[in-house]
Amino acid sequence: MYDKEIIMNQKRLEPYTKRLLLSIILPLIFLSIGLFGYTIYRNYEHNVVTIQEKEKSVSDSIAQQINHIESQTMHHVHQSDFLYFSNSSDLHKASHYGIGFSSNLFRDLTNHAMFRGILLYNYKIERYYLYKSDINPGAKKSSELDNQKLLQQLTPTTNGLQKRYEIVQLDDTSYLALIVTQRYGSLAILISPTQNEIFQSFANVEKDKFTATYSADDVSNISNHPIVTKVNDFPIYLVYQSPNLFDMVHFDLFQIIIFVLIIGLFVFSIVMFLYLQHLLISPLNYLSKSFGQISAGDYHYRITRKSDIYEIDQFYTGFNQMLDDIRDAENESHRQQMDAAQAKLQYLQLQIRPHFYLNCLKNINSLAELQDYKKIQTLVISLSDYFRYNFQDVKNFVTVREELEAVQSYVDLCRCLYNEIELEFDIESEVLNAKCLPLSILTFTENAIKHGAELKDLIIKVTTRLEVDTDGDVYVVSEVANTGTIDEETLALLNDPSENHPIYRKNGVGIANVRYRMWLIYGDHYQLQFENRDGFVISRLRFPIHIDSMQK
């Protein structure tokens, strides 16, 4: 009864789809916006053309004055005073001609409103002459000029006469500079286009919207809604900037009526959209995010939301049921894999033990044949302690301390059987509580004694330490070294774990099983290597540490 009541209260998707199709108001909105936008565009376009025409008249006036300044400047440059100044390396002569040339030129250019000053420079004598309305002319040392970059711009690059326009800065003010260079001398005519009469008239009307910008690059994108005009080939741009488009649009009554209708239709559309958003679009977005969670591997995720639409709510329920089925199947598969891996690991551990026990029994039998009963008694007592370590319940890990104690017990046993064995430990204290696989370090100690038993003086060195790689991961590194050498062919076989699957090898059962048990626990994150080094055979085992064991 309860379920039927819920289904009756839930809404169907089909009626809302029909209502959406019946919303013909949207085409009307688009049509109204189109008409309104067209009228705004025509109004805006007209104003842009008007501003461009004004900018063109300002640009022509500025270019004309610059050309007049250039013409008068070059007239003076071709006279003898500038020539003598530019080619003179004598301070007295250069100052004489420089002052005369600058005074005459300054007098002729003062009638131009855009003319702001003259900077004359001779890099050979390291003197410059600055002529402005507020600065008295006279030779000054180059080092006294605050803007050394300006002097670098003025330094001639060739001996011949050159002319160019550049943007310079003097006393925190930017100027357009007509630069003329010849041999040692340079001349810079400082020009300020903003002092043009037509420019100032237009700028006073438009206030802060109309400016002049110095740039060698295109400045069309310096701000929003710029109207840019370049002054001929000079690095000057006239820029009209408007904070928004509507500053350049003037509305009439027809446009205002259309605007009010658009606002009304727009508000109605927003209300309808929000309603459909809550009813239909929001659940679909929620579903999309849920699929993203699952794609990221979060199989514990479940949909907790309820929907007013029957079809979507049914989909939520089926979605959660599918995730439950996937989780159950994954748990069952994982359990089966863990059982199989644990069975393999226990089999390999048990396989190592008979290999070692048979060696011990053979050694005791040899002592019995020699009737050395005292040594047999000592051997049996020591062997009982060692068996206590080996006959404990099968488990995955022991501490490095326990493994090294087993190594010591085994060497004590072997000292009763062979010649003198010298055992040396080099152990970092921090590694003693780290976890390792049982019979791992011991296996290599056993092999070292087995293959070095014929040596008169057998030395075994066990080194265990911690090692941190470049990623910050901590590893246990254990090396067992014994006197002797291994031929290269055998060494190559020992270092090739793919030679045969270790579980089926008849020889080297201990090493093969250690390698395979390491692979079961650590995968590809362990290393087992053999080498000859300085008269010793080195067995090197490297495997990741367990952080919890270090905390203990």
Automatic annotation (TrEMBL):
Keyword Transmembrane helix attached: yes
Gene Ontology cellular component annotations, sorted alphabetically: membrane
CDD domains, sorted: HAMP
Residue ranges annotated for the HAMP domain, each copy included: 278-331
Key word Transmembrane present: yes
InterPro entries: Bact_2-comp_sensor_kinase (IPR050640), HAMP_dom (IPR003660), Sig_transdc_His_kin_internal (IPR010559)
GO molecular-function term, one example from the UniProt record: phosphorelay sensor kinase activity
Any Pfam family the entry gives: HAMP
Residues spanning the membrane: 20-41, 253-276
Keywords of the record: Membrane, Transmembrane, Transmembrane helix
The protein, known as: HAMP domain-containing protein
